[in-house]
Design a protein that fits this description.
Elements: H1 3-45, E1 52-56, E2 59-66, H2 69-82, E3 88-94, E4 106-112, E5 115-123, H3 128-139, E6 144-151, H4 159-170, E7 176-181, E8 184-190, H5 194-207, E9 213-219, E10 229-235, E11 238-243, E12 245-246, H6 249-261, E13 271-272, H7 281-295, E14 298-303, E15 306-311, H8 317-330, E16 336-340, E17 355-359, E18 365-371, H9 374-387, E19 393-395, E20 398-399, H10 407-418, E21 423-428, E22 432-439, H11 444-456, E23 461-468, H12 481-491, H13 508-524, E24 529-534, H14 541-561, E25 569-573, H15 586-592, E26 594-599
Parallel strand pairs: 2-3, 5-6, 8-9, 12-13, 15-16, 18-19, 18-20, 22-23, 24-25
Antiparallel strand pairs: 1-2, 4-5, 4-7, 7-8, 10-11, 10-14, 14-15, 17-18, 17-21, 21-22, 24-26
Length: about 650
């Protein structure tokens, strides 16, 4: 074969190969472009614009940042539905998620006669067994149903003080719901009386942790008022209520509004209770108060459905008749009106007999004046000794004749009325009983008025002048926790609770100081304080820490022996870790050896919560700055002297 033929054949084959390569290239390019466009269109149709599509031969590459793992998987699925899934190469990444916010820790504590239930979410570091033990201690071993969940997140700084406060409050409230969060404690409870409600609200407010909001909703059943009493007086002292009762809030508002229109100034207490003789009570009270205002002076007394209107002597007879006639015709039928216009006093009448019972601010009782018989004298003395004390009662009253028939009853009633006062006097005459004095109970005047109205009836005259004095109120007079802390600091301002060298035994000087501190704590009631022991830096650190703790515990034990309520006091030993003076001088070391009484307040530091928690009572606040205001301990210069 000739060479030209061979070259021709080779050229043909080479040209065919080149054409095949070119055709294949165009085919691959067409396939790549078609796959890319098809996948791109499918992704855009589903709003996945974040995904980028590329091709390399038959391979389809997905790239880009997916908003989440679900979007990434959806994009791969869409691409796999357009082309063979084996051709899809995943080069996407998922956007880094923001860290999850810690959960809101909270507990609902429900308590009733059947026991206690705990529902909510708590930190995983909370010692649940210790929490159950703390609840049992506070409630007298009431059964507890633990329905709590836990989450492994750090607790807010105020979580533990809020929970500790809730558990301690639970002991005061047999029927209650307490909602606890780090920022707020809400207490809803029912107590047995208005007096108990007032006491509980004061106790809860005193114990509340700092930086934790407190919401109280304490309710008490309406008291049963027997007799249902109202007494309104207009005299030289102005218009006022000696006693006020109402069956509803609307009735109370109507009665107080009528009193304001009759000349009463300022606010007045009107007890809402049960036992009203008729729903028309407010209507009758309004009409009677308005009638007394027309007379200008006197008193109107309701004892259930009996109304006694007593005009001032010297009131115009025609006016009296007009007012009484109009009132009698307007009152609801259930009420019975008895109106009296006393005559003017006659100067020629003999001396009026008196019996006077007085109570001094120191608690001494004196009974003087006239009594009907020796038996009445003995009965009045026994009653006074029962209401006060045998040593406090002194009797100088004499037996006299020709006294009114009900004199003995009025004498005994005077002694009972005196028992409602902190100091004052009750004067009995044939015409009236006059009660004047001071009390630490806001309702004392109302209680005395109800007593007199019940025993004497509405037609008898009596006058009341009972002043509420806040510092005599056993609840309002309690010092604040801050005042208690300051008073204890003042006791130790120039003295120290001393200890025998190298031991936790309190010396004689320290015992005297503890007597004064115990007296302050007994006045303050239950408050949360830390009894903290401190040493100087002499000696080993471990020994100093142990010695300071033993001394703090010794102080706590001595307070218990002095009958101080110590459930809110906690002993801590800080050793040499919190100096308040220079340990390089003997004077500074002497200052650093001390016992401090400090209020326990919520933590304010922002470090993460510790890995473990030993329970409510053992977790202490860590925000102390080491400032000491009180001192204790005997000075030493060696390891045995801290």
């Amino acid at each position: 074969m000739r060479l030209s033929t061979i070259l021709t054949i080779a050229g043909v084959f080479t040209g065919a190969a080149a054409l095949s390569v070119v055709a294949a290239g165009f085919s691959v390019t067409a396939i790549e472009d078609g796959s890319r466009r098809a996948v791109r269109a499918a992704l855009d149709a589903r709003g996945m614009v974040w995904a980028e599509v590329g091709t390399d031969g038959l391979q389809v590459f997905l790239a880009g940042t997916a908003p989440d793992e679900a979007a990434r998987f959806a994009a791969l699925s869409v691409a796999g539905s357009v082309v063979d899934a084996t051709r899809v190469i995943d080069q996407t990444v998922v956007e880094e998620a923001e860290p999850l916010a810690p959960p809101q820790f909270s507990i609902e504590i429900l308590r009733n006669e059947r026991g206690i239930s705990l529902i909510g979410l708590v930190p995983a570091t909370l010692d649940r067994h210790q929490l159950m033990a703390d609840i049992s201690e506070a409630t007298g071993d009431a059964p507890v149903a633990d329905l709590l969940d836990a989450a492994d997140y750090p607790a807010p700084a105020t979580w533990r003080p809020a929970l500790r406060y809730a558990v301690r409050s639970l002991g005061l409230l047999p029927r209650s719901k307490i909602s606890v969060s780090a920022e707020r404690v809400a207490v809803t409870a029912m107590v047995d009386s208005a007096a108990e409600k007032r006491q509980v609200e004061a106790d809860l407010a005193r114990r509340s942790p700092k930086d934790v909001r407190l919401a109280l909703d304490i309710s008490a059943p309406r008291p049963v008022i027997t007799p249902f009493t109202l007494r309104f007086v207009i005299d030289e002292r102005g218009a006022r209520f000696d006693a006020c009762s109402a069956d509803t809030e609307e009735a109370r508002d109507r009665i107080l509004r009528a009193a304001g229109q009759a000349g009463m100034e300022g606010r007045a207490d009107c007890v809402i209770g049960m036992g009203v003789p008729t729903p028309q009570w407010a209507q009758a009270a309004e009409q009677s108060i308005a009638a007394l205002a027309r007379l200008g002076a006197g008193s109107v007394t309701f004892t259930d459905a009996d109304i006694a209107l007593l005009a001032e002597p010297g009131t115009d007879q025609a006016l009296f008749d007009d007012v009484v006639g109009a009132l009698d015709g307007a009152l609801p039928e259930v009420f019975a009106l008895n109106a009296t216009l006393p005559p003017l006093p006659d100067d020629s009448e003999p001396v009026v007999p008196e019996f006077i019972a007085t109570l001094s601010p120191e608690g001494q009782v004196l009974l003087r004046g006239r009594l009907g018989s020796a038996q009445v004298r003995e009965t009045a003395t026994s009653l006074a000794q029962a209401r006060f004390s045998a040593d406090a009662v002194h009797v100088t009253a004499r037996v006299a004749e020709e006294l009114p028939r009900d004199w003995s009853m009025r004498v005994l009633l005077a002694v009972e009325a005196l028992a409602h006062l902190e100091s004052g006097a009750v004067t009995v005459t044939p015409d009236t009983i006059d009660v004047r004095g001071k009390s630490g109970q806001k309702a004392a005047g109302t209680e005395i008025a109800q007593l007199l109205a019940d025993r004497l009836g509405g037609n008898e005259r009596y006058t009341l002048d009972v002043a509420y004095v806040e510092h005599l109120d056993p609840v309002a007079a309690l010092p604040t926790p801050e005042e208690c802390e300051a008073r204890i600091a003042a006791v130790q301002s120039d003295r120290k609770i001393g200890f025998e060298p190298g031991s936790a035994r309190i010396d004689g000087t320290g015992a005297v100081i503890l007597d004064e501190i115990a007296a302050i704590l007994m006045e303050c009631g239950e408050i949360r304080m830390e009894v903290a022991g401190h040493t100087d830096s002499q000696g080993r650190e471990e020994m100093n820490a142990q010695l300071s703790l033993e001394r703090a515990r010794a102080v706590l034990d001595e307070l218990r022996l002095r009958r101080v309520l110590t459930s809110g006091l906690e002993a801590q030993g800080y050793g040499e870790s919190r100096p308040i003076a220079d340990n390089d001088t003997e004077e500074g070391r002497e200052t650093n050896r001390r016992i401090e009484f400090r209020l326990i307040r919520p933590e304010t530091e922002t470090e993460p919560a510790p890995e473990t928690q030993t329970g409510l009572e053992s977790v202490e606040d860590t925000g102390d700055n080491g400032d000491g205001t009180e001192e204790g301990g005997e000075g030493r210069t060696t390891d045995e002297q801290n």
